[in-house]
Design goal:
Strand content: 15-25%
GO molecular function: alanine racemase activity; pyridoxal phosphate binding
Protein name: Alanine/ornithine racemase family PLP-dependent enzyme
Order of helices and strands: EHEHEHEHEHEHEHEHEHEEEEEEHEE
Largest sheet: 9 strands, mixed
Organism: Romboutsia weinsteinii
CATH superfamily of the largest domain: Alanine racemase
Domain Alanine racemase N-terminal: 7-222
Helix content: 25-40%
Number of domains: 2
CATH topology of the largest domain: TIM Barrel
Keywords: Isomerase, Pyridoxal phosphate
Radius of gyration: 23 Å
CATH architecture of the largest domain: Alpha-Beta Barrel
């Protein structure tokens, strides 16, 4: 059935092996982030056979489904107070930036007779989550270290995801220095200093990762085979472990410019068109309700994506050397947004390829 997301587990395992080696060679643990493909159990199970150290996800439901995998689980998204019971039950470590939430986690951990580990988030300038003011951070830690069932294991930061701030030797060194200061002041050991996600990997190649960073959280680098600071492919990794396959439902020669007064489309946008004469157009059975079409790249480089409605994607195939027919398939590589939306969509079938055998999900 189409549309479908093809997932090549063999390629993903190779990507995982390469990224883990990059990190482990620098004495950095790997928390593999599984959210981009909704933590499909069989895929995570296969990848967990490589040398990853943690499984990390933003959704507690995903971690719940992975409870049987014997690796520590990290909840990446700041916990909601409404979910603290499940956070303590299904995650070994959670990332936190609000003292009131940590208080509630402590209460729940006491009730569950568990020690819940936390990494405190520090904002180094990307302006997403984390303590930005050092005095506020230290005041929070002053209270947290006294809690019975909460253990601070370290600090973590996030870069590039919101403000697009690139990790550097300088800003990550600030995280390391802050951790050392906290260790000295509170006489505690912080073994978990997490220096970001796939955007931090390029520092390993440049040998500019500060000593003291002990953990990274690669997700896109494993899924799509590239670092995300500059978008460069990682040597030896596959960029096509995930492919979107769609079916052609209409082929017609039509003008390149719509005829009549142009208003707004179904999504409230007023499009603009260039008159290129009559062009060969293909319509695929997939649309904006199914996927983020701005994050797709046709594998046939002669194809141009013209746009989409909620149910149809329109292609210009005029320059392609392939003689496409009704029912033929068109394949796409996916960006991060495309992968997330395809994985989340119930309208996109997931086809998992193990060596030569595939299984629908």
């Amino acid at each position: 059935m189409c549309p479908k997301l093809e997932i090549d587990v063999k390629k993903l395992r190779e990507n995982t092996r390469i990224v883990c080696k990059m990190c482990h060679d620098k004495n950095i643990d790997v928390a593999m982030v599984t959210k981009s493909y909704c933590a499909i159990e069989s895929v995570v199970e296969a990848l967990s056979k490589e040398s990853i150290d943690y499984i990390a996800d933003s959704r507690i439901d995903n971690l719940k489904n992975l409870n049987h995998i014997r690796l520590p689980k990290i909840l990446l998204r700041i916990p909601m107070i409404s979910e603290v019971d499940e956070v303590v039950k299904y995650s070994d470590i959670s990332f936190n930036s609000e003292l009131e939430t940590i208080r509630r986690l402590n209460e729940v951990a006491i009730g569950q007779n568990k020690i819940h580990k936390i990494a405190v988030m520090v904002d180094l300038g990307d302006l997403r989550e984390g303590f930005f003011n050092v005095e506020e951070l230290l005041a929070a830690i002053d209270e947290v270290v006294k809690m019975e069932n909460i253990k601070i294991i370290g600090l973590a930061t996030n870069l590039t995801c919101y403000g697009a701030i690139i990790p550097s030797k300088e800003n990550l060194q600030r995280l390391v220095d802050l951790a050392k200061s906290i260790e000295d002041d509170y006489r505690i050991k912080l073994d978990f200093i997490s220096g970001g996600n796939s955007s931090s990997l390029y520092l390993l190649d440049k040998d500019e990762m500060p000593d003291g960073i002990t953990n990274l959280r690669p997700g896109e680098s494993i899924a799509l085979g590239r670092e995300t600071a500059y978008g460069n492919p990682i040597k030896g990794c596959y960029q096509d472990a995930f492919k979107l396959v769609c079916e052609i439902v209409e082929l017609k020669d039509k003008p390149s410019q719509p005829i009549g007064e142009i208003g707004v489309d179904a999504f409230g946008n007023k499009p603009e068109y260039v008159d290129r004469g009559i062009r060969r157009r293909a319509i695929l059975a997939i649309g904006k309700q199914d996927i983020d079409i701005t994050s797709l790249e046709p594998m046939d480089k002669a194809i141009e994506i013209l746009g989409a409605s909620s149910d149809h994607m329109i292609l210009d195939i005029t320059d392609s050397s392939t003689n496409y027919l009704i029912g033929d398939k068109v394949e796409f590589l996916l960006g991060y947004g495309g992968l997330m939306s395809a994985s989340t969509s119930k309208y996109v079938e997931k086809s998992i390829i193990y060596e030569k055998v595939s299984a629908a999900y």
